[in-house]
Each structure stands twice: as structure tokens, then as C-alpha cells.
Design goal:
Lysozyme-like, Muramoyl-pentapeptide Carboxypeptidase, domain 1, alpha/beta, two-stranded antiparallel ribbon, binds zinc ion
Length: about 260
């Protein structure tokens, strides 16, 4: 059984059975981006439609720019998994998910081809035009599941998406940035500065309790932040550039019109 695609950009409907009604009605307010993380994109599409695998996404964008829709936007697809953002753990109920064909970090992590990124940008713009999704809720899978996921990864062109009106992003502070307070924090550190940093990540939405210890979870959250917002060096160390970029992002979000 097929369905009418939500977007005129859809080249092909390949229905996935792995979906159901959303928790709070048909509307989504998060756009979640992934890579498929499999060697073959055809195998990824088959898995996303396999009732035994129980996974799915609303859309998949192939390397050549072909756009597939698997689940109607009004329904809940299965792409987020165990996740957290800003107090909510059922991200599938609130999100539209796009799987972008790329083998991912386990298989050499090739660059995203330009025509694939053009198709992703067009599709995101189309989804944002039809749904009320605030810029700060265009998220990476790694943002909402930092202990498990790295996708879509540091090669994903978030800056280019932002320039196309998609998501919230600020120009990362340079790596050599030494502005105050620039004391680098890393795993093993503890105290007030670590607690302040943890509060800032949690204020943005990351699932990070404030305990004042730069523990393993703090390191993975810093890594997730870097994958999305400061991709030049992804090492889980809260250097001056990372801290400054995080504060700039919080300031940019505070400037957004209230929706
Ligand atoms: Zn993912």
C-alpha cells in the first residue's frame, strides 16, 4: 500500500510498516538528521522498511540526490531510539527524520556529495515550510543520543544549511581563541567551572546532569556538541573555542523570536 508523498521533491514512495500515530497528535516540531551508517545505501533502505528491524525514517536521500519517502509526516517513525532533548525522551513522537545515505564512521566516512547535500537542503526547506519547527530544533542524531550516535558527523555541512535558512548555528570561535574565560576543561576536572559548563549544555537541551565532575558523559556531550557546532576538532575537550561557541549559540537562541 502506497501513500501520497508530503513533498513534491519526493522521487519515490517506498512504504515502511514501522510507524504509528504520534503521542501528541500529527504535528512534529523537531527535524532530526542522520546518516544511514551502512556500506550499501540500498541495504539501508531495505532495513528501514523491514518489519523485523523495526526501524524507519520519514525520508532517505541517496548519494545521487534521489529522495525516498517511507513514512507520512503525520506518523511516528522509528529513527531516534533511546534519546533525550530538553526534558523529552520520546523524540520519535515529535520529529521528522531524514536518513542521509553515507556509510558513516565505521566504513571510512566519505564526504557527502554536493548534489546529495543540495537535495537534503531542498528537502529540509520544504519540510520547514510546511511544519512549525523552530531553528534550534533542527538536530543531529548525535545531539539527542550522544552516548550511542555520531551521525550525521563532523563532515555534515551545518553552516551551509544555516545559510539556506535551516537550523540554528553560529560561526565557531577559532581554535586558538583565548578570550575569557578560556580555561580548558577536560575529563577528570571538577568544580564550579565544570558545573557551569554542564548547566550551559543542559540549557541548550543536551541530556547532561550538573554534578561538577567532567565525567565520561560530559566528554561525550562535549563531543556531540563539537560534531555539530565546532567540527574542526572533535575530541571531547572543552577548550576555549568550544566554550565560547556554546555561549554564542545560547545567546543566538535567546535572540530568536518567540514562537
Ligand atoms: Zn541516526
Amino acid at each position: 500500500m502506497s501513500f501520497k508523498p508530503n513533498s513534491s521533491l519526493v522521487d519515490r514512495v517506498v512504504r515502511s510498516p514501522n510507524c504509528e500515530a504520534r503521542r501528541d497528535g500529527p504535528r512534529a516540531d523537531i527535524l532530526l538528521l542522520h546518516y544511514t551508517g551502512m556500506q550499501s545505501s540500498q541495504a539501508a533502505l531495505e532495513r528501514l522498511c523491514d518489519p523485523i528491524a523495526k526501524v524507519s525514517a520519514h525520508y532517505m536521500v541517496f548519494e545521487d540526490g534521489e529522495v525516498i519517502q517511507m513514512v507520512p509526516e503525520a506518523l511516528r517513525a522509528h529513527h531516534a531510539g533511546v534519546s533525550f532533548w530538553a526534558g523529552d525522551t520520546d523524540i520519535n513522537s515529535r520529529s521528522i527524520g531524514i536518513e542521509i545515505a553515507n556509510p558513516g564512521h565505521d566504513w571510512g566516512y566519505p564526504d557527502y556529495p554536493d548534489h546529495q547535500m543540495s537535495a537534503v537542503i531542498e528537502l529540509c526547506r520544504d519540510i520547514l515550510a510546511r511544519n512549525v519547527i523552530p531553528p534550534e530544533l533542527v538536530l543531529a542524531h548525535s545531539d539527542i543520543a550522544p552516548t550511542r550516535k555520531q551521525d550525521p558527523g563532523e563532515k555534515f555541512p551545518w553552516a551551509k544549511l544555516y545559510e539556506s535558512g535551516i537550523g540554528l548555528w553560529v560561526k565557531p570561535a577559532p581554535l586558538a581563541f583565548e578570550g575569557a574565560p578560556s580555561k580548558w576543561l577536560r575529563q577528570g576536572d571538577n568544580g564550579e567551572a565544570v558545573a557551569t559548563l554542564q548547566k550551559q549544555f543542559a540549557a541548550y537541551g543536551y541530556g547532561l546532569p550538573t554534578n561538577g565532575d567532567y565525567d565520561a558523559l560530559t566528554k561525550v556531550v562535549v563531543t556531540a556538541f563539537q560534531l555539530h557546532f565546532r567540527p574542526e576538532r572533535v575530541d571531547g575537550v572543552a577548550d576555549g573555542s568550544t566554550q565560547t561557541t556554546l555561549r554564542a549559540l545560547l545567546a543566538a537562541r535567546a535572540m530568536l523570536p518567540k514562537s
